[in-house]
Every structure is written in C-alpha cells, then in structure tokens.
Amino acid sequence: MPRIDLGKRRLLTSAAAMAASGVLPTWRRQALAADRYDAVIVGGGTAGMPAAIFAAERGRRVLLVEKAPLLGGTLDRSGAQTTAAGTVFQKKLGIKDTWQDHYNDIMRITRNTAEPILTKLWTQNAADSLNWLAGLGLKLVDGSPTTGGHEPLLIRRAHHPVDRARQVFRLMEPLVKKAEAAGKLEVLLGTKAVDLIMDDGAVVGLVIEDDTGAVRDVMAKNVVLTSGGCMANPRMFQELHGVPLHCMLGYPFNHGDGLILGQAAGGFLKGGDTYCPLLSHVLDDDQVPSKSIGAMIPETHEHPPWEVWVNTSGERFVAEDHPSKAHQERALGRQTAHRFWAVFDQEVLERSPPVMSGWTRAKYDEAFAGHPMFTKASSIHELGARAGLNPHVLGASLADYNRGIAEGRTDICGREHRPVPIARPPFYAIQLHGYGLMSWAGLAADQNLQVLRRDRTPIKGLYAAGEVLGRGTFGDSYTNGSGVTPALTFGRLLGQRILNFEAA
After folding, report:
1. Cβ(50)–Cβ(492) under 8 Å?
2. How many domains does the chain have?
3. Which of 36, 90, 319, 434 shows its CA 20 to 30 Å from the CA of 396?
4. b/e burial code for range 80-94 (CB count within 10 A of at least 16 → b)
5. Structural domain contains residue 483
6. pTM for this prediction
7. Do 303 and 417 sit in the same domain of this protein?
8. Does 16 reside within a domain?
9. What distance in Å separates the CA atoms of residue 304 and residue 326, rounded to the nearest whole number?
10. Amino acid 11: pLDDT
C-alpha cells in the first residue's frame, strides 16, 4: 500500500498556529492553558456525536470540535443501513441471531479480510447501539430488517431507518444539546484541530483554530479522532488508495486531517490496498475528480442487464448478472483505473430496461449525440476506435458472447441472463467509473480503539473511531452496515466506558 507520512506542520495554516504549537515546551503550555477537559473529540459526526453524548453522561467535561459549521458529518447523506444481531427489532419478528453469527457472516463475505479485532468489537456491541436508538424512537422502513444488499447476509439483520441517516442525526442532536445545557459538553463549530500536544510520547492536548484564525491550546486526558477520512482530498486519496478519486461524492469537509494528526503522533495507516469501488457513475468529463451526471442501475439481480461490460482492453471481466454486488465490485476493483464500458446495440436500446438509473430515451439520445462518455457507431470496430478500446479485442469479446447464445453453451463469465445477441447496428458504449463514498485507508487501532504505533504499542491518550479508522470492518468488500454501525458503536463505547478519565 502506498504510504503517506505527513508531519504535523502540514496541518498548520497560520503563523499563529505555528507559534502556539512549536515554541513553548509542553510543561509551559500546560501551565498556561486555560482550557482543560476530560475528553476532546475531533469531529462531530456518526462516531463523534455518541462519543460526546456518553462521555458527558458520565459527568465529565467534554469538548467537541467540528470543522464544519454544523454537526452530523456524513449523516446528511448516508443510507444508514445498520447491521446488528439480537436487536429489539429482530426479537419482535422472532428472528434468532447472535453476535457470533454476525461475525462469521462478515468474515464469510470478506473472505476473512476484515480485521478480526475491530469486527468482533463491533458485532459484540452493535445490538446495544441499535437498541439505544430504538429507545430514542428509531423507526424502520417496512420489511426491515432484511438480508441487505451487496452480498446478502444469511440472517435478516440489516436495519433500514426511515429517512435514512437523517433520522439517526435527529435522534442524537437533542442529546448533544441537553449535555450542552447541563454544562458538561462544549461544542465548537467552524473549528479545526491543527496539532496534537505531546508529552513524552503521550497525547495530552490539542491545538485548535477557529474560523477567525484565533488559535489556542486545550489540554485533555483523552483526545478522540472522529474526523472522517479523505474523500474531499483527491491527492491524498490517490496516494493512499492507488487509484484516482474520480468523483467527489463524499463529505466535503473530509480532508484527512485526522489521518495526518494520528501519524504526527506516531500512528500509521493501513487498509488502502483493500479499497473496493462501488458500481458505477458516468462522469461529466475526463478531469479528475469530475462531476457525476448519472449512475448505473445498481441492483442487477432485480434488473438483469442486457448489455455487456468490458474493461479498458475491450475484454469482459465479470458476469453482468451476478447476484452478488460484492463479487462485481471486487472484479471492478481489479480493472485499470476502475473504469469500464457498458456496450449494447439497437435491439437492447429499444427493448431492455435502461442502463442508467432514471434516464429517458430522450436523455439517451442527447448524450449519444455528443457527450464524451457516450459513443455511437455503425459497427463494433468503429465503436471500439471511437470509445478508445482495442477494436479487435472488443469485436472478439462480443463475437464470443453472441456465439455462446447461438450455441447454447455456458458463458465465459458465467452469465445466465442472455436475452439477445448484441448484433444489430448501431452500437453503443457508455464509459463508467467505480466510485466511493468513504476512504478505506485509516489509522491502526487496538481493541480499546487506541491508536497504535508501527510496533503495535498504543499511543497514550489518543483514540479513534469512525472513518478515520479506515474500513477494517469491510475487508476487501462492501459488507452490509459496516460503515455507520461500527462508527456509532465505537463512538458510544469510547464515551461510555473506554475513555480513562482518571489518567494524569
């Protein structure tokens, strides 16, 4: 995996911040600092909010620092599919499930690439998180829990909130305000963490800067990084994951600040080499990153495709109708630049469901009239040349597909849904790219969510939860509920019992 070792000074954005963090010795800064907290939490999103809520409930003084002008982080856009075993929702429906069943299912889906320690911590405590939200009034969509999308779970444990993650935010926000009113929690919006204060290898505080440029030190017994990943930082994303950030769909304040802070304290990053793209978007142009103008219909098992998919060489690379999205996503992850083309003919255009979700025939006609990601040609060889594919390889791929249908033999990729050959001109190709909503590279942490050095020793006083930990619970696949649920659960655990408020 590409390694990025960024010094803390890259986060310092003003001369005042440089002076605050670099001139005074630690003992002097501690003596002068007027602000002292039991816990400082950096990031007020899916993990940071429950961490702050539960730490404040323990009667301690807590500071929540959020760079954005509002709380919530990715809760404004996440689907909030939450997976847990032994929830009140399951019990109401008579569904028997255990954390061990859930853990085994995750390891099955990820082919044992998920991190056992973090996955076990999540699955053992996820039901408590869901039941806590249920007690606050969480409502699920009809038919929930389900077996989820991507690779189906073996038991119905995927819970789908009404109004997605926005409902989760609305349930937690009053608890944050309650803690503020009680004087146990201070929330600073528009405020960023610019440096960690270290003393003999331990984290003892934080340098923060508000939106006016004012800088100050805050001392803390615990510093918790819940500041998200790097999905708004194309350069860092590519360096850590080895592929371009084709389309910026993630949270716009996720610049990787927590990743840099953790490394500056001695931590290290892992997981970028397991990054897996989602299927798939059409980009507005060849710039990186670019704007999405539409997405492929995601549920190929519900809407079996009629087109074929080819990679940059013009070769097919996966069964287009495979029932597992996780299988297709991993296959796309092995293709150059996570790019492919959906290829079809006039017969498919007229008879099949649309390749693009929600697109009309008029919108197709407009795109094929001149958009750079849409190609139309009178022959397969001309299509390949115009689309930037090897015409001979593309022609051979489609000829083999058509012969398989004519001869009734098994498809080379194992595809079963083959309604018509692709043989009637004109021919069409749509260039698509895999995309991501979360970065997968993150800080290494132990079973106490304490950030680790490369020698696997924990950094005293420094913890992490949420996307800043990367996708250790994903492994090399998108596993149902492995984003929101661990973030909620780990944040709750930190505030409720892990953070040590008696530390010096």
Report:
1. yes
2. 3
3. 434
4. bbbbbbbbebbeeee
5. yes
6. 0.89
7. yes
8. yes
9. 16
10. 38
